[in-house]
Design a protein that fits this description.
With 168 residues, the chain is α+β, with helices and mostly antiparallel strands. The protein has one domain: Cyclic Phosphodiesterase, Chain: A. Helix content is 32%, strand content 26%. A hairpin with a 2-residue loop joins strand 1 and strand 2. The longest helix is centred in the C-terminal third of the chain and has 14 residues.
Length: 168
């Protein structure tokens, strides 16, 4: 979600280890997925078909949410994200969201991990930057994999009717 980077990148670099390892601002669909070495042509084709069956959609972010040790941004209408997550779970039942640890999946963009005082400070800073909502048109989804050099894009999949993205 490159549209969120101006609001969150500096905070994520300090408070989210995945940002330090190269993961861009994103709303997670499935984590963990398959290890990078298990992503083959057949898996990529299944992902291409699945994502290609979904219409592009808009996301608006203007609210901050919290888990006990996590500060995140909440998409206003997360239904399209939820539908994608459910479809991925049906297609790849061996990869439940968050390893099956939660029954209710909350679509979000993680900004920071930390203790209460840290999250309160980050939330105050973030609230000042969110005076204008973050608007994004989602036309493709990416598959990220963790390598020894950090997170990298393994594949990018166009939603229905969107231009086919160039491979990473």
């Amino acid at each position: 979600m490159p549209e969120a980077e101006p609001a969150v990148s500096a905070l994520r670099l300090v408070h989210d280890p995945s940002a330090k390892d190269g993961a861009p601002a994103h709303v997670t669909l499935i984590f963990p997925f398959r290890p990078s070495e298990e992503i083959d042509d057949e898996c990529l084709a299944r992902l291409r078909r699945l994502f290609g069956s979904f219409e592009p959609f808009s996301l608006t972010i203007r609210e901050i949410g919290r888990f006990p040790d996590t500060l995140w941004l909440a998409p206003e209408s997360a239904e399209p994200v939820r539908r994608l997550t459910e479809a991925l779970t049906r297609e790849f039942p061996e990869c439940p969201p968050y390893g099956g640890a939660f029954t209710d999946i909350v679509s979000h963009l993680t900004v920071a991990y930390g203790d209460e005082p840290t999250l309160a400070k980050v939330e105050e800073i973030l609230a000042g930057t969110l005076r204008t909502p973050i608007e994004a048109q989602i036309e493709a989804c990416s598959l990220l994999g963790l390598s020894p050099d950090g997170w990298r894009e393994i594949g990018r999949f166009a939603l229905k009717g969107s231009p086919r993205p160039t491979p990473p």
